[in-house]
Amino acid sequence: MVLDARDMIQPAAAASEKNIQEVLAQGAAGVSLRSVTKKYGSFTAVENLLLDIPAGSYCCLLGPSGCGKTTTLRMIAGHESITSGDIYIGDRRVNALPPAKRNTAMMFQNYALFPHKTVWQNVEFGLRMRRVPTAERRVRVGEILELVGLSQTSDRKPDQLSGGQQQRIALARALVTRPQVLMLDEPLSALDENLRVRMRSELRNIQKQFGLTFIQVTHHVEEAFSLSDQIVVMDHGHIDQVATPSDLFAKPASKFVAKFIGDNNIFAGTVLNAVPDSDGLDMIELAVAGLGSIFSRGQATSVGQTAACSVRPDLLTIVSTAADAPSPQANHLTARVVDVELTGYVTRVGLLTEATGQELLYKVRTADWADAGISEGQAVTLRWSAHDCVFLAD
Ligand code: ATP
């Protein structure tokens, strides 16, 4: 796929707000899942999903392979039946409605364009399937191509267009059916890194411009962070957390989420003490075998319970001398540098705790790492505040 200057055209730059309202006559709709379960025979693919996706928002279903993202998307679209529960699109319960009656559209992996059809024919296809009369098709395809900035290329075949233009055809083909919700199944997965970054910003721009509800499946953490108003993290057929990107980053709700979203350092232990803090959270002291006390903040479970805490690798600091005993202001431990990986602006430093051999990760600005003058094999003291350490109940 080729990237060229045309990719940078803002697709609907010429389109007025009024045009968009006219073309997408029905506006956006929210989506609600009420205790939705899907079983394949005796295997439960997703269980008891409870989820509200606000109208006009960009929502990413994020999780590892096999966690149930695609099944969930397909159930909303109507391509998969549900075993129990209810799905609402707007205020309509759509459980029994076929895909074409749900006011949704789907954009598939690699865009799934017809290579032998022109841009116009690709976009027109869905309307033909719905038996929309010829005159109306002509108007609607013309309008949507103008909105996405492809009027001048309507008689070309997809392989005569750049990667960005191909994505816009796929979007136009979905949007021409006037959906209230657009679903995207890993649309960027086949693209190389550069193109993927550009295409996701264009997707976000189009979603904002049209104001529709977008629901996207991805296993790419960075993609979910950059696109979403709301991220739904799934694991083994369950929803682990629903949050804005910034809340997810700052406050992962489980060990799985903390690990999945990015390299967090996790310490498992037993709750030793919990003291209410000024802002409604507790200051929790966790006894961690071999490491002693580690302080974190969150909603405490009872004393004696097993639990964990998590600290981001960019919130650690390396200090040359150990402080006194660990305290809420200064968790600390001794670790040995075992791996230094320069990735660009950021250097990833792998460490092993001296006491337990647990692997840890420290991320630091490359310039700061160079200034620190620390080399592989050296023992260091890592330090972090309890305020940067998130308590994770089991
Ligand atoms: P990926 O990112 O790999 O696409 P996913 O999170 O989208 O994964 P799903 O495709 O929703 O996962 O699958 C969830 C689980 O349901 C998997 O264990 C999968 O093997 C199983 N599954 C999906 N479709 C079927 C089917 N038609 N019959 C039986 N099991 C299925």
Describe the structure.
It is a single chain. With 394 residues, this protein is an alpha+beta fold. The chain has two domains: 5-250, P-loop containing nucleotide triphosphate hydrolases (Rossmann fold); 263-393, OB fold (Dihydrolipoamide Acetyltransferase, E2P) (Beta Barrel). 25% of the residues lie in helices and 34% in strands. The protein contains ten helices and 20 strands. The strands form four sheets. The chain has a six-stranded mixed sheet, with helices on both faces. Helix 3 (119-129) packs across helix 4 (134-147) and helix 3 (119-129) packs parallel to helix 5 (163-175). The protein starts with 16 loop residues before the first helix and ends with a strand. Mean pLDDT is 88; it is low at 1-15. Adenosine-5'-triphosphate binds at residues 40, 43, 45, 63, 65-71, 219. Adenosine-5'-triphosphate (ATP) binds next to strand 2 and helix 2.
